[in-house]
Amino acid sequence: MPNRAEILKQKYQDSLGLPLAEVLSEGEIAQVLAAQTMSYRRVLYTPIVVVWAWLSQVIDADKSLSQAVKRVSTWLAVAGETLPSEDTGGYSKARKRLPFEGLPPLLARTAAALQAQLKPEHLWCGRRVKAFDGTGIQMSDTVANQQAYPQLSSQKAGCGFPIARVVVWFCVTTGAVLAAAMAPFTTSEWQLARQLYAQLSGDDVVVADSAYGTYADLAWVQAAGADGVFRKHHARHCDFRRGKKLGIGDHLVVWQRPSQCPRSMTPEVFATLPMSLAVREVHLSIQQPGFRPTQIILVTTLLDPKRYPKAKLAELYQLRWQATEVNLRHLKTTLDMEMIAVKTPAMVRKDLWMHLLAYNLLRTLMWQASQQATGVASRLSLQGTRQQFNHFRPELTQAHGDKRHPLYQTLLLLVSTLVVPLRPHRCEPRVVKRRPKPFPRMQQPRSVLKAKLVA
Fold first, then answer.
1. How many beta carbons lie within 10 A of that of residue 32, not counting itself?
2. What is the mean pLDDT of residues 65-77?
3. For a surface tag, which of 192, 196, 324, 421 has the fewest beta carbons within 10 Å of its beta carbon?
4. Which CATH class, in words, describes the domain spanning 118-334?
């Protein structure tokens, strides 16, 4: 008879784990976790059970530890097993024991498995496209978190939250997270992004906003064998009367290495950059109502105007918004990653990567649904997919044998219908209608304010 941990593992794999069955098997998860040489007793919350339970927390509407423990108790009660304690302490300690070093490889495997499913018709000009951007996340206000990720210097002590900077790389086609880097908010986005450039390959094209349209970033991307398409940095002047003309608003120029080393780079690293760089500059005029910039200049190392025409570059940069801004909003708002409610930096890192892994789980489900319906995965609703999946999970758990696969196929069919409508002429003002509550901002630590109330 299977023990309680085996029962829980099977329950999770029969429901939450179905989308990942083809891209991240039980054996692969066990192999990654075993590589961390983690030892544990014959306990209820084994590493694999903790991974599945944590992913379930992220995807659930109720993300509390209590919700996760109650699900475990319910499954064991139905199986006729001895019920565990309703106290969340055991599960919380098991989460702390889970090694962080096992989570990035799991994320990389899910991303690589989705990348491997791309067909030639999914590529842009025969190239894989990666988009990235930076954002900030907050966490619980504890002494340990403040030491590792200090709050903004403009905030008074005890009146702010620890904050970290995160740079996330996405696959433009599947929407999956490919890699991420995290550091204190005082660390620049450039430093974090450059940590990930080494993961690029020769088939990759990287797209990002104007913060990365610099000499150093183009040189780093080219050194990795890839190509970059960035919006021109505001500090760089562009003159289309110079250089080799390729068309209207399209020319080749040679950029010289800046004379001064950027603050985000050490002099030793700066010295390794080439003395000059061939760059193509492309001027785009945006005619779509509602778009804030009407004139955009792209800088790229894609120098061949026949293989990469100006219209294709415009199409590529337009995909950046969906691939980065919208997907970061999914992570921070839809999956509630904007505030990570844990007390230590180690748990912050683990919870962040669990959010990324859960996001990839949903993206895998959306990709499978889009391939069955010959649709486009980026057009499907991530929130709708999450809701539909959460409704199906109890039914998938209870389904037996040959009934589970048809039920999962029905889930994929329903997800494939969750298409976000195209609204090309939608134009909304960037304002907020709802008024905030009339409470003053905290200007003193909570302990001081509480003492004043009881005085």
1. 21
2. 92
3. 421
4. alpha beta
